[in-house]
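Before relying on records like the one below, remember that each one covers exactly one chain. Contacts with other chains, cofactors or solvent are not represented anywhere in the record.
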Amino acid sequence: MSTHVFTSEEILESIAAWQAIISNSAQLIKALEQGNTFTYDNIKQAEPTEYIHAYPGIFEDKLYFFVIPDAYDNEAYKDEINLHTQCRPVIWTLMGSHTIPDWEAELRIARWIEHYQAFVVKQVSDPVGMFKAFNIPADDFAGDECLATLGLQLQGAEGPMSADLIVANANDKTLVEFDDFVNPVPPFGAAALESSFYLLQAAASI
């Protein structure tokens, strides 16, 4: 876990730094070489939360994920973004899941480790582009301490790959896995409206 205490401005600047390289495959690969996993402390929120938003960002050349409940990812909390955002550096790890079978989770994670560079190059030239955030159902986080690991999911047996996050609970040194309903954005949709990702809009003005 990072020991740096982020300000709201630093969070937005870090997200903006990822946006700045979103079309540069070499710079994206350089950032993603730093790790595939981040931790998240599942703290009870005062406001009802349906989704958790995870934003990649770069701070002092280090890749982070900035994780905020959707209830606080809006302009009403713009002056206290840092109070509701967990700022987590990435690390390398390999783990499994059982809601999707262990072999499938490990395959997706291994696929990321082996193919993320090629995926980045292809995705940068795709009309959808590289992911700017992830939309994660809050119910996926059931334990106090969770891990989220990047993966690549095949769309069909021979179809294209899409970015994925495998979410697991790390309580008591065991891994208890949850439903695999994480979506990268873009593309945006009914469950992940572009307007609900305030930090993307705020970072764009940095």
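The first strand starts at residue 37 and ends at 41.
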